[in-house]
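[SOLVED] Need 3D model of a two-part complex

Original post:
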Amino acid sequence: MTTPENKRSDRSRDEVLAGEYVLGVLSLPDRLRVEYRLRDDKAFQVIVARWQENLATFNNDYVTEVPPSWLYGSVETKLFNTSVADQPKGLVWSSLTFWRGLTLVSLSAAIFFAASAGGLFRKPAAVPSAVATLGSGSSSISLVTFFDRQTGRLQVLPVAAGAEKSKSLELWLIEGESAPVPLGVFQDQGDGSIVIPPDMRGRLKDGVTLAVSLEPFGGSPTGKPTGPVVASGKIGI
Amino acid sequence: MAGNDDRDEAEVARLIAQVTLADRKAFATLYQRTSRKLFGVCLRMLQDRADAEEALQEIYIKVWNSAGAYRADMGRPMTWLIAIARNHALDMLRRRRQVAVELDEAGEIADPQVGPEETAVLSSEGRRIEDCMRELEEDRAAAVRSAYVDGMSYLELAGLHGVPLNTMRTWLRRSLIKLRECMDR
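Solution:
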């Protein structure tokens, strides 16, 4: 039975456990146990994040040191099995001009799905509906997203929106390095939802990126994003 | 200078966001801007250059793969990156040293009077940790700091300070409670 007393003592234990985890004093099995719990326990994620931020001052003790010059090439080879020079040219999303257009926000994007919700943590599969928050560093716009896998309805509710009038928000799907595919335009007076076309529903899966861009009213005239990306993030279902 | 730090943080956040779009150039820039700090973390914690070089590669692979998981409302981007680096180094350390200090019930710990749910809201305000560290006894504060910065386990800290393992555990847990109380004040 849960009494207020029990609850309080559970919280104390959680505070200490989260602190021990962030300090790093736990053994490997205990670290793994904490990380397992962090996948689903939102309240615990907040406690850990708070310790992380609180103790971040200690990060000043780490003296910067230049890593060997070959190291980045090795990271690239491991990730892409190629070097940056081979990157396809002309891709809207990697074009400098396009990114220079990002004046609206500082674009600190974040997306997370309800049950995974955690900074570094993956979650178990088989959750039917999902919630994502697409945020931005300057907080000029932030969107809360619900996706109902059954109906294919993706609902996006702008919160603290400060976007200019006579503009529309358009949702895009990016698979790997392919060009963005338009998923729909959010209606000005709508409830913030977009029904994903049936043939696109299967493509909303783990690892693909969702992005929302600011477009001329009614959506991009070219079928490609033309305005700044206000938020983006990878799906992790 | 705080202004510069803020601008740097915003720039790092922007780069992380671009990395979620599989932007390799942004990834390269992110590496240029942050790898010296993360390499410093690896060197300090692992105390071995070859291990630190290996760790740094794995860390940036993690950064590429989990950039989409970064949430601005859960902390600053540099803090997030350093947490990835520290967690990776800690896993390596714990594997290397095979320290088996099992988690036990924190029964002997006094109730820290954690405030209502609202205090759990992440806030960048609140008292600086350094002020609160000064309220701890000197050796306890030193233990907290080297646990974090060097990634020392309870066992290693106990050896370093010449106290039994359980004493060290109690030291650190009580210190954590005091720090939490102090920062919530």
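Edit: Chain B has two domains: 2-97, 117-184.
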